[in-house]
Amino acid sequence: MKIFGRTRHRPSASWRQATDRAFTLIGDGRYDDAGALLTRAAGLEPWLSESWFNLALLHKFRHDWEQARAAGLRAVALLDRETGAPDWWNVGIAATALQDWPLARRAWEAYGLRVPGGAAHQGAGEPPEDMELGSAAVRLSPEGEAEVVWGRRLDPARIEVQSIPLPSSGRRWGEVVLHDGVPHGERATLAGPSYPVFDEIELWAPSPVPTWVVLLEAATEADRDAVEQLAAEAGYAAEDWSSSVRLLCRTCSESCMPSAEDSLQTSLDPHDHSEPGQPGPLVHRTEDGLWVPERECGIAAPASLVRGLLESWAADSPDTRDWRDLEEVV
């Protein structure tokens, strides 16, 4: 087979050596050195789609989306199969990061996904319509103090966060994050389904809604549920971190783990922190499983609403409900 006037063959030993060394450097975080080697490899074998796929992958790691798009398009131009190539997925991620929606649509369709609505039904500057990909988990800050939270998949590269992340993540409820295509782990529910855990690449759209932490005195689980319901009815969220947060080592976090609660039917799903070393204990849970009235709760709501929401919650049952130490944290 001839491509650009050259006979296609297996990559040379020099190409393989440069590429192998580059990925070792990528693993060490030495992206500049890796980039020089992958650029050299592409010069040695410019007719190989793998040369440009590898460069697109490196630019994705560096969040250099213009370069990732350019290299990705060179890779797909050299493909010898019509659908399903991961090259198209990387193009889709880069296009989504750049809000290049016509290219994103083309990439997902070339990969083999059905994208609702046609170009005639939406403007060139609009994202694809809801692709109904369902719930998934996303690992925020995967290279740091990782935290797995639940969200709603908007398309193959974006998730809207529906848990309330802990303050250490720097993330907020309602934010949209760009995520990678290959899941690292699963979360199983008591109802049976398992959901993939994707790694965050970067924040795609911030949320204007601040995160608050408050200590509740909730005599029963029903009292706790009431504050979560009240926040949801107002269009925002509250989450009992005392029940929903657990510590996991990285190995466990990247495996198939059961959720702490079977609550995927709501937006208040359990999340975890991935920590090196041994698994940590479930936060604020007693060994005998008895209810503890003092609850640490995260609330996502505007400053103009949060105090009134808590006061209304406590006033509905003053003998069993109280709150204190409200603080904005993110």
Automatic annotation (TrEMBL):
Q: Where is this region: Disordered?
A: 260-285
Looking up InterPro entries in the UniProt record yields: TPR-like_helical_dom_sf
Q: Which domain of life is it from?
A: Bacteria
Give the protein's recorded name.
Answer: Tetratricopeptide repeat domain-containing protein
